[in-house]
Each structure stands twice: as structure tokens, then as C-alpha cells.
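Annex B. Sample input.
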Amino acid sequence: DRTTFAWLCDVYVPREARGRGLAKALLAAVRARMEEYGVPRVLLVTSSAQELYRSVGYDEVEPGKWMILPLG
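Annex B, continued. Sample output.
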């Protein structure tokens, strides 16, 4: 069996630590690891952080909700 996607959930940076690039660093690490494992896509659901995910390459699948990051 081969993995067809990774599910990303519960990414959180405390308010006092925001603005330092921590979320982008976490997402870059997730992307690198999933590419290393050969996972073809990462899926998530968010209504509050779409701009963040768009900024690192995710696309909306369902506006205001589902997003996808195609890999490799």
C-alpha cells in the first residue's frame, strides 16, 4: 500500500510568538518530510489561516475550507 495523502491538523503558534516565521518553518519541515516519504499531497481544513497556507503553496479546494499542497 502506498500513502495517497498526508492530513495536516492543529498547527498552532501562540499569539505572543507570532510574526517570527515559526508557522512557515513548521510548514516547510512538514513539506520536506512528506516529500522525503514520497507523499504526493498534503490536505487540510482551515477557515482562519488560508493566507498563511496560500503563502507556502497550498491551493483552495473548497473556498473557506479545504486546501491542498501538491508535492513532487
